[in-house]
Structures are given as C-alpha cells and as structure tokens.
Design a protein that fits this description.
Chain lengths: 430, 276
C-alpha cells in the first residue's frame, strides 16, 4: 500500500473545510478507571491501659456502568489492652480466674477490675453486587464474614430500591440475616454461675451461637436542588446466646459493700457470669438531612432506638464540610449519644437478695452519655485523595444509684472513658 | 437520524436548555430531510435522479461531497460515497437481515468515485451511479449542533445522536461526561466506560446490524472495492477526536481496515477502544 502514513492532517483539513473551523480545545478522553480503592488506617486508643484498636480497611469498587458495581471490603483489626470485666473495685485485693480457667490474676485494692487477657485479631470480609432492575429499580445483594479466634460471623443481605417522582424520591427495603458462632476461651459460661478456681470448668458449657435478622425500610426525598432528606426505620431481632462470655458481676455485702466469699474451696470471692435474655428485638428510626451551600455542605442526622431490653437511645450527629479550595476540605464532626440502662443492668448484686433472672454489669448496657468531637481534613492530588481524621471520645455512665453502700461509696464504679481516634485515609483509582 | 438523539446541558437556565434543544431538534431534522435517500424531495434524490446530467449543488452539499471525496482518497477507495447501492445485496434496513452476495459483481460496476465528475460546485453522476451521504451526515449534524452550542454558551453541553457524540463548553461537574461503550453480548450494558472532558466520540460497529452467512458474521460497513465488509473487522470501534466528523471517519475507516484496524489507529496516534 502506498498510503501507510497517517491521515490525521488530511482529515483535519477536510473537517475544517466541512465545518468551517476546528474547535479550539483538543479532545480529552480516557477510559474511566475500573477500580476505586478506598483505604484507611485507624488508631483508637482508650485511656488508662484499656483497649487499643489498630484497624486497616481496604475497600474496592469495580463499576461496570452507572448502576452496576461490585464492592469488596476487607478489614483487619488488632485489639489489645484491657476491658472492664463487670466486677467492681474493693478495698481488698481481688483474685480472678482468667477466662481459660488456666490461670488467675489479681487486682489491687481500689482498682477497677479489668480483664487484660483481651487480645484479638479480627478479619472481616464483605462483597456486594448492585445492578439495575428495569428502568427505575435497583437491587443489591452480598455477604459478609468475619472471624476472630473465638468468634465466627457469617451474614447475607439484600436490598431493593425504587425511584419515583422523576427520581426525586427513592424508596428502599433491605433485609439482612447473620449467624454468629462463639467458641469462647474456656467455654461459654453458664448464666449466673459463679466464677470457679483455676482448673475447674464446671461453670462453663462449650460453645454457643446466635442469629440476627434485620429489616430496613426507608425513603430518600430530594427537597430542593440543594437539600435531601432520608428517613428510615429498622427492625432487628436476635436470638440465641447474647451474653458477653467474658463479663461477670460482683456479689457484695448489702451493708459493707465488700465482696462475699465464693464457692467453697475456690478461694475466690463471689462473681457470677452475666445473664442476658436469649432474645432481643430492636427498633430504630433514623433521619438525615443533607444540604449543599454554594461552596460547603453539611449533614445532620438523628437516630432513636428502643429495644425490649429497656434500652432507649438517641444519637445526634452533625458534619460540616468546608471546601477550603478546589483540592482541600476540612470537616468538623460532632456526635452526641445517650442511652438509658437495660432493665437488667446491675452494677453489683447483693448477697441475700433473690438472684434475678437476668443481670449484667456490662457498662455498655448502663445509663450513659457519650460525645465525639473531631475533624477530618482531606486533600486531593492528581493521583488520589488523602485524609486525616482526629477525634476525641468521652463516655460517662451513671451507675451508682442505689449501690453506693459501704466501701462502694468511695469508688468510681464505672469510671468515665476517654479515647482518641486517629485515622489516615487514601482514596485512588486504578 | 434513525436513532435516539439527545442533548444534555448542565445549566440553571431553562431558556438556554430550551434554545439548544430546539436548535438540535431542528438541525437534526433539517440535515435528515435534506440528505435522506428515502425522501423524494431531498437533495440526494434530486442528484440521484439526474440521469447523467451535470448538476450544481448548494454550498453545504458541496462541503459534504468534498469531505466524502477526501475520505475516498484517504481510504484508498475503501470508503466511497457511491457505495450505497450495495444495500441491494445487503439489506440491513428493515425486516429480517438478508444478504444476496450473488448480486455484488453487478453492483460493483455501479460504484466508484473515480467515475464521478466532481468539479465543485458541479456534480455529474454517470447513469446508474448513486450518491449517499448517510455515512457522514449524522456526525456532521452533531458537529453543527455542538458548534452552535459552543457559540452560545460556556455551559457543559453534550450532543448525542445515536451514540455519536461531542461535548462543548466547560467540563461538567463530574469533570467529564461518562460515556459507556455498549457490550457486545449484553444489550444496554457498558463494556467500557469513557470519560470525555472535551471533544467527540464516535462508534462504528455491527452489534445492531449484521448478518451471518455460513457461520461468518458480516457487518454493515462495506469496502467499496470488494462489496464485502473487510475481513476480520472489529465488532465495535470507538474513536475519540476533536470533532464528531473526525471521530466517525476514523472509526469507519478503521472498520474498513478489518484485521488491520488497530495498527491503522495506532499509526494515527489517537485514543480508541476496540471490541472484538
């Protein structure tokens, strides 16, 4: 062939003749990236040698077209430190058997009993696929799995969305089911059974499981060109072994507040393993309002939750994104959380009283308030976007009502908790 | 235009959107009417009915013919404004697709730009030879509408006539228009996604119109020299260029290179996406 040389020049000249002129700006086109990768490294550290969590998260989204995408997320957590066992301080040294039943540890007089055998690595994986269903509907489905040395979670979920009203309204319904198997160190304690001495596993009974079902319905409504409101309701039900196998309660003298002797020959004071109901139903209502200003944007959300354990909680969260420049933004964040105690929450049990059917001294079931104050800074480069988040968390429980007897009056039974959060994030495309 | 046409504009002004949409609609209809081979009152029908007589063409038609003649030269005769008669052997237009290759030799005698006398603005088509601007009319209409939009607003505008498209103005909010190249196997789904910030994209392919003979798939873009589609032509060729006319010409000429489509486009140093 004689014409192997490029035709670009001739074609441009011919096009110029056809259209009169060529556009001033040359074409800029490239294949859209196939993968969006979002990664973060989180440090969460509680004060007073309590829990430290270092968490690495990587999520990848492969978009096939506007509505079709595959999402994969991998999270690896490394938890170290100590967590409150549920027992209260005493004016004497307290001795506890470790969960494995193979060892014991002591807590000095006046100190909050912490279980420092808490150490774990958790690996979690999830995959979701979303696709359109006709013109105005979309569905998604996925699974999640996570594994710890004493815990295995397997879950499936699905969601259906439908647009109405020229896409100004989107309604959705979602369902999730999961099955969690626990194989606690030393076995799952028998509820309200006493802690035994080293080598005696008679209060433990192997492994156990629970299952959870959640249903979510919601609607997203465009209020104006700048505002969006989302409202959703969820119902969740869990059944099975809902105790925390590492939590127990102190049984104390109703007058002196001092520990009472445990099982004969154990050499321990009396601590009984917690006992929660074997089912729980939760309902929650969530609303979020998002608004875009000329340059900035903000979001405020509110969640109300109630369950049949007697817990009622409310969360208010606000974020304001200040777009400092085309490439940089700063987002202050504020969160407030409050909850009432569960009906069966007990800071301690008193000797001589009839043993309640259910009892837990887990501070997470206490009457508590928490605040998170933080800010996230992000900067976009030509290659990706990195971010840094700093947060401060403070939690205070009110767990002294009716239990400040004798020695206990002098102790901080559920000390406040503060934690710092540092998170680095990097998002990029491939 | 025989295919869905759309105009997307990112603006607060309803009036601007209306004005651009009205121009796009009117211009698409005007070009279609003027150059349709199906309309007895079209410029094309008048030229094809001239029975060997020399005809003067209007200035716009002259520009389109001149462009087609340039493509004929650049493609070494593969692209030819007079190849439309091959439709009599390859019917893709309506009803079931059918091919009648036995008719090709006779039809080839009626094809060949070298037999046409083109002395702008005078065109002489020998008897039996017909001209068809269908291969360049749609991209031309896209460019006309895009040029109009560019002259009237800086707002981001995308003109899309049946998958041949061009954008003008500042890039849209998302930094680029996201354009899907339709999958060969899954209708309505994207095999590739292209981010177009400025310029044009055009696609040639046989996903919609093809015929299978003895297990071999034939598309609807014919080499005017043989009367057959080029052997081993890609199923779909998408090209990015400054204008839709250039993008469309590149994609058509690449199809006509058959197995050599990639090396042809590589030599041009342009962005393209081929599905085979």
């Amino acid at each position: 062939m004689q014409l192997k040389k490029p035709i670009g020049g001739s074609l441009a000249a011919a096009t110029c003749g056809l259209l009169g002129a060529l556009p001033a700006a040359p074409v800029v086109a490239q294949e859209a990236p196939r993968w969006e990768i979002d990664s973060s490294l989180l440090y969460y550290g509680e004060d007073g040698e309590r829990v430290t969590d270092v968490s690495l998260m990587v999520s990848a989204r492969r978009a096939f077209d506007e509505d079709r995408a595959l999402d994969l997320t991998l999270t690896v957590d490394s938890l170290t430190g100590a967590t409150p066992s549920g027992a209260v301080p005493a004016s004497t040294v307290q001795t506890f058997t470790t969960p494995s039943g193979k060892d014991s540890y002591t807590v000095a007089a006046g100190d909050a009993p912490l279980d420092d055998s808490f150490l774990d690595t958790r690996v979690a994986l999830s995959a979701h696929w979303r696709a359109p269903l006709g013109e105005s509907m979309r569905w998604s489905a996925g699974f999640s799995a996570s594994s710890e040395y004493d815990y295995l979670h397997l879950g499936v979920d699905g969601r259906l969305e439908r647009d109405f009203n020229l896409k100004n309204t989107t309604a959705y319904v979602g369902v999730a089911y999961s099955q969690d198997d626990m194989d606690p160190v030393g076995g799952a304690p028998i509820p309200l059974a006493p802690m035994r001495e080293v080598g005696n596993l008679s209060s433990k009974a192997g492994n156990d499981s629970k299952d959870l079902t959640d249903v979510l319905v919601g609607v997203t409504q465009v209020l104006s060109r700048r505002s969006l409101l989302e409202v959703s309701y969820s119902y969740g039900s869990s059944d099975g072994y809902l105790n925390d196998p590492y939590k127990f309660l102190s049984v104390v003298d109703p007058v002196s507040g001092a520990p009472v002797p445990g099982p004969a020959g154990s050499g321990l004071d009396l601590y009984v393993y917690e006992s929660r109901p074997d089912s729980r139903t939760k309902q929650s209502l969530f609303a979020e309002w998002r608004h875009a200003f000329d340059r900035d944007s903000m979001a405020v959300n509110f969640r109300y939750m109630t369950d049949d354990w007697g817990i009622e909680s409310a969360t208010v969260e606000a974020r304001y994104r200040w777009n400092i420049s085309d490439r940089s933004w700063l987002e202050p964040q504020l969160r407030w959380y409050t909850q009432d105690a569960a009906d069966f929450y007990r800071t301690v049990l008193f000797e001589g009283e009839a043993l309640p059917r259910h009892a837990s001294a887990d501070y997470r079931l206490a009457d508590l308030d928490a605040w998170t104050v933080g800010a996230k800074y992000g900067h976009r480069t030509d290659h990706g976007e990195f971010s840094v988040r700093l947060g401060y968390y403070r939690q205070e429980a009110d767990a002294t009502a009716g239990v400040a007897v004798g020695d206990l009056a002098g102790f901080d039974l559920v000390p406040p908790l503060t934690a710092v959060i540092v998170q680095f994030g990097y998002k990029f495309q491939l | 235009m025989g295919s869905p046409c759309e105009l997307l504009v990112e603006t607060d002004s309803g009036a601007l959107a209306q004005r651009l949409a009205a121009y796009a609609r009117d211009e698409a209809n005007r070009v279609d009417r003027k150059y349709s081979r199906y309309r007895p009152d079209s410029v094309i029908s008048a030229l094809n009915g001239a029975r060997g007589k020399r005809r003067r063409v209007d200035e716009e038609t002259a520009r389109l013919i001149e462009y087609g003649a340039a493509l004929w030269r650049m493609s070494e005769g593969r692209f030819d404004l007079t190849s439309g008669v091959l439709r009599q052997a390859w019917n893709f237009d309506e009803g079931p697709v059918r091919a009648d290759p036995a008719r090709i030799p006779a039809l080839l005698a009626r094809i060949g730009w070298q037999r046409v006398t083109w002395e702008p603005p005078f065109l002489t088509l020998p008897e039996g030879i017909e001209i068809d601007l269908g291969g360049i009319g749609k991209e031309y209409a896209v460019d006309r509408v895009a040029d109009f939009a560019a002259a009237h607003t800086d707002a981001p505008v995308l003109v899309n006539f049946g998958g041949d498209l061009r954008c003008t103005g500042t890039p849209p909010t998302n930094r680029a228009w996201l354009v899907g190249i339709e999958s060969l196997t899954r209708a309505g789904e994207a095999a590739r996604r292209i981010e177009l910030a400025t310029g044009a994209l055009a696609t040639s392919g046989d996903t919609k119109r093809h015929v299978v003979i003895d297990g071999v798939r034939y598309g609807h873009i014919f080499d005017a020299r043989t009367g057959w589609p080029a052997p081993d032509a890609p199923r779909s060729v998408t090209v990015a260029a400054d204008t839709c006319s250039q993008a469309g010409s590149y994609s058509t000429l690449a199809m006509l290179r058959g197995a050599g489509a990639e090396s042809f486009l590589d030599a041009e140093g342009i962005s393209y996406w081929i599905l085979r």
